[in-house]
Design brief:
Blueprint lengths: L1 H8 L42 E4 L6 H10 L4 E7 L6 H5 L1 H4 L4 E5 L21 E7 L7 E5 L6
Parallel strand pairs: 1-2, 3-5
Antiparallel strand pairs: 2-4, 3-4
Amino acid sequence: ARESLHLREAGHKVRATTLLDGVDDDERPLRWVRGGLDFLADDPGDDWPICNIVTNPPYRHAEACIRRAIDLGAVKTCMLLDISFLGSQRRGAGLFAEHPPARVWVMSSRVTMYPAGYEGPRGATTQTHAWFVWERSRTGSPVIGWINPADFR
């Protein structure tokens, strides 16, 4: 949510939403997150068209979120997913055959993610994440590259 504020301050139009209800935050500038909205079911209304969709979807709904973004006509769709998302015969013959990503940006080191406000113990993860990027006008095989998260701290 904090990232949406930085994007807004840079002059971008941002619609930050979450399925969880009750997270509207009138206290913070520019209403960081609008709660109670279901990306997979709700009509985007007047906020559409949105050029780019950037999210870390629930893994079990990742393919549905990708397909929804493509169906809505997003110019660019970026999903932060576990790298194992590539390893599926069903997705290989379905989603990836129909809509191959333009790029896959693999995190060169493992990134542990905690919920906002988390105060508990911190530990390492065994997951490797990547940004999967679809572009509306792109066809062909994806380009694969690597991102070193330490370069962005």
